[in-house]
Amino acid sequence: MIRDPKRLSTSEAIRQQHGRDLTSYHAGRFPDVVLYPKDKEELREIIAYANRIGCPIVPFGLGTSVEGQVVPVQGGISLNFTHMNRILEIRADDFAVRVEPGVTRMQLNRELKKYGLYFPIDPGVDATLGGMAATNASGCSAVRYGSTREQILGMEAILADGSPIRTGSLAKKSSAGYNLTQLLAGSEGTLAVFAELTLRVYGLPETFLYAKAVFPDLQQACKAANRMLYRSIQPSKIELVDAYTIQAINSYKQTKYEEKPTLFLELSGWKSAVTAEVERVKEIIQEEGAGAWSHTFDESFGEQLWDARRHAALAIAALAPEKKLMTTDVCVPLSVLPEAVSFAREVMQAEDLQGAILGHIGDGNYHAVFPIDPSVPEEAAKAAKVNERIVRFALERGGTCSGEHGIGLGKKQYLTEEHGDAVPWMKKIKEAFDPNHILNPGKIF
Amino acid sequence: MIRDPKRLSTSEAIRQQHGRDLTSYHAGRFPDVVLYPKDKEELREIIAYANRIGCPIVPFGLGTSVEGQVVPVQGGISLNFTHMNRILEIRADDFAVRVEPGVTRMQLNRELKKYGLYFPIDPGVDATLGGMAATNASGCSAVRYGSTREQILGMEAILADGSPIRTGSLAKKSSAGYNLTQLLAGSEGTLAVFAELTLRVYGLPETFLYAKAVFPDLQQACKAANRMLYRSIQPSKIELVDAYTIQAINSYKQTKYEEKPTLFLELSGWKSAVTAEVERVKEIIQEEGAGAWSHTFDESFGEQLWDARRHAALAIAALAPEKKLMTTDVCVPLSVLPEAVSFAREVMQAEDLQGAILGHIGDGNYHAVFPIDPSVPEEAAKAAKVNERIVRFALERGGTCSGEHGIGLGKKQYLTEEHGDAVPWMKKIKEAFDPNHILNPGKIF
Ligand SMILES: Cc1cc2nc3c(=O)[nH]c(=O)nc-3n(C[C@H](O)[C@H](O)[C@H](O)COP(=O)(O)OP(=O)(O)OC[C@H]3O[C@@H](n4cnc5c(N)ncnc54)[C@H](O)[C@@H]3O)c2cc1C
Ligand SMILES: Cc1cc2nc3c(=O)[nH]c(=O)nc-3n(C[C@H](O)[C@H](O)[C@H](O)COP(=O)(O)OP(=O)(O)OC[C@H]3O[C@@H](n4cnc5c(N)ncnc54)[C@H](O)[C@@H]3O)c2cc1C
């Protein structure tokens, strides 16, 4: 199995680290042991062994998932992929790479840059590609490129009984049999453990343009974003941050952004196209009553802008360091977005909950984020209520309870609300693939 | 069940029509009865009933699939969706539509045009959206928009026991539980029957530009196409047709295209962007040694061009009307394409088989198409041999045996070659969803 005892740990500190996710909102339990497999063969042996003895296995990337996905609620083995972090092959001419699951997106992008390529999916924090595939992470660039699942051409996965399978191929598309790649993507470690991923990558655009537009209110910011999409403008990023978030960022990053609802934008592509596009964007933005507008090709401005956006959640957390962050993750049809965001703001106000609203609004996906102390029953109850009302509002209008974070522990009840008729069939698949329930038990269902 | 006897047929002629696909290459068997459900409720009742008595059900769209998918190899019911062809909702502001599965792509596009929208997926012939979802059809526009599966936001499906489930939502993305939408898409009627589809649609681009480039040989045409993609050019169509195909088209359509390997191209988007892009394309094309090059914004030229491309298969068939068309459908990594296409040409020559090569080369997907008489054992053997060598060449280089046509009857052995380790797990899903094997039995596996 693990052929080097250094890659096995039962130390309290290490187990604790693997017993919770970054937000720590979800109550933790330690794994009994943390294993660091170094290759497919070890991985296969561990899983087959765990299956024989009925021991739970919880894959662990960087532990940045926010719905308690990595918490080993039934103890057992936490599988850490730090030692499986090799970039196996860069096939520049095929716009494809093969990686081990412990490779992080930033690590991959550092390497890809040498080839004039990049992997655009950006959930803000760094994360392993295995973790991103398992939660179907998306983030800022999904509006142009889709989520992580759209980037997965194929994978090598180990099933619960230790069987390795290869799904997909190096080809850009396929209609060969059931699409197991897309079934396993987003399965949060409950159906299979990824041993290798084949991912799509892209040519680095010639130019990036960065822009910022400040609005008098949230609704107008959302409407402006929609109007762009309706006019076939394809930003590579379009992010909403509300006044509360800007305050948090200003205090965290010592920046001086105007403390009003703001759109952060990125256009990219050929310089000539971007230059023409930004004029159309500006026109729309101004018609929608934006106050300050600025745009630039200057990379340092762009870096500052996206750095601020990336640290938004941490900045919000820093406003109340003694609390934990709870976050909603609904995704609604685009036309519903302006109304949904206003509703979220009202609901928080009604419950007297301080919190932020920010989101990937080109997808209709936004987060209401509120720091709470889950050990204070009253606060937990308020948060649960706000969460519930926001989710229900989305579901009633054809939306989903999770745009990108996944179900984990935190959204189980909403999965049932959203897909009650389909859940029994998801469970049949779980049963067929993992009859002993060893793979990340207690998650999703 | 069927509440109007007019929507049930046991006539010989009708049963015969539902006993084969358009190419008739695959040996037919008639269904015992053809039913034309008119709504979900009837559909549900038929399926539940068939499941109780163990009667096979084969969904039938327009019967244009080419791997024998609609042939009822075990008899039973053929389910025709002609009466379930309503466009239920056009949500222009959400870039989404809800349709019944019998709606055809052309029917949908006629309606969408009124809203300045379109559904880009274009497998040449007209086809139902249910059939396209079930084979994961793609065709000319996949290079920009992806295949049919990428357009499916959600669906209502009836499972083998008559259970209706809703998958996905109206939101652009979701991480809520296992992705049943993507599992059912491409399942060729073997896992569920679609009762309703929610599809993504797009704003009609401001401009379309059409172009044609003639090359001295196939390899160079492929290389030119690849070079465009390497330079981040995003055509909305880029099609290869070889000299044989052009001959066939000229004779079928009375056109006078130069009888050499040719790229058919379409660029689309904002006029300013397209105008800049075509200059880059032209430069690349000429560097790669193209002979004649022409481009135009003229729609009638475009219509003629794509009409020719669309009729390519029929034109090839018309060269040998007494024979049947067999077609390969491999998809290879882009870098392998020039070599793969040359190999296909050599293999056909070696076997002295007349045939065409054409394809969606922006995806690495090409077809070798040869008219044969399957009742002449020698011809059938030759065709099988060519098919096998072409598929194996692709598989050895990381490609897939089916880029877009699916497995049906015709590619079963290659599915096993490609995904031998995964097939048992596909079968477990089949078993879990359709334990009585009533849904399109004998296909895929
Ligand atoms: C501040 C902050 C901001 C965030 N913003 C976004 C955002 O904008 N968009 C977004 O989508 N997400 C966001 N996230 C969530 C998070 O980054 C993603 O969920 C990420 O994909 C998790 O990656 P990870 O490597 O940390 O995985 P982990 O958290 O370690 O694991 C996530 C899941 O993947 C499974 N897993 C890990 N490796 C494997 C493997 N090899 N095989 C099978 N299963 C595996 C785990 O069991 C678990 O179920 C944010 C998180 C934080 C803390
Ligand atoms: C000349 C020619 C050119 C072609 N070119 C292309 C091309 O470029 N690209 C491409 O991808 N394809 C191409 N095809 C193949 C074909 O057009 C596609 O496979 C198409 O998707 C089939 O649609 P249909 O409505 O005819 O479905 P059918 O052939 O009737 O059925 C196809 C499959 O879908 C299932 N099905 C139908 N309706 C439902 C439903 N409601 N629920 C569940 N399952 C259902 C059937 O059981 C069957 O398995 C071509 C075919 C021809 C004849």
TrEMBL record, chains A, B:
Classification via SUPFAM superfamilies: FAD-binding/transporter-associated domain-like, FAD-linked oxidases, C-terminal domain
Cell membrane is among the record's keywords: no
Biological processes per GO annotation: lactate catabolic process
Keyword Transit peptide: yes
Any GO molecular function: FAD binding
Keyword entries, A-Z: FAD, Flavoprotein, Oxidoreductase, Transit peptide
Top-level taxon of the source organism: Bacteria
Top-tier EC class: oxidoreductase
InterPro entries: FAD-bd_oxidored_4_C, FAD-bd_PCMH, FAD-bd_PCMH-like_sf, FAD-bd_PCMH_sub2, FAD-linked_Oxase-like_C, Oxid_FAD_bind_N, Vanillyl_alc_oxidase_C-sub2
Pfam families for this protein: FAD-oxidase_C, FAD_binding_4
Domain FAD-binding PCMH-type: 27-204
EC number from the UniProt entry: 1.1.2.4
Cofactor: FAD
Family: Belongs to the FAD-binding oxidoreductase/transferase type 4 family.
Name this protein carries in UniProt: D-lactate dehydrogenase (cytochrome)
Organism: Paenibacillus arenilitoris
Phylogenetic classification of the source organism: Bacteria, Bacillati, Bacillota, Bacilli, Bacillales
